Please model this.
Amino acid sequence: MMEVIKLVGKYLNVPVGPLCYNTDKIPTTVLDKQSVEGFATIILHLTSKSGYSLSQEELLLSYQWLEHIAMYSNQASSNPTFAKNFLQGINRALEKKSYLTGNNLTTTDIAVFYVVQPLVGNLTILEQESLLHLSRWCKHVQAQPRVCSHCAPIPLNTLNLHILAPAVH
Model:
């Protein structure tokens, strides 16, 4: 989670402060001379500092997604079966919308992308194609300027994904 926070900070061009885990193993930093605890809270605070504004609905959905990711990402990265179920859940959520919180790209999409990037990158081509909505979303997010400036993009260039999940719509 710490690396994701750092990448989001770089993406937003906002300093993340001194990151550490508190005694409860919760990510913690100091922003604006205040202690900020929790993955979702830190990401949303960085978003606010960067000048991006979220609607009330986007804010609530962002918090929900970021907490979900914080809760299950470690298990997904260590258990391939759990990872597939984790990714299928995100795929289902993206079935009827372009981005996680609606029709606009938010910092939540960027943070979740940095979490799922290694998981999607480790999938076979057929597995990527079976997660069509997730693959489309990944292509959209990684096509944004600065997203992959500090990490390699996921190779999603199969003919099926090019036709069925274009990067731009």
About this structure: The chain has eight helices and three strands. The chain has a mean pLDDT of 88. Strands lie at 20-21, 27-31, 34-37. The helical segments are 2-12, 39-50, 56-78, 80-93, 107-121, 125-130, 132-142, 159-164.
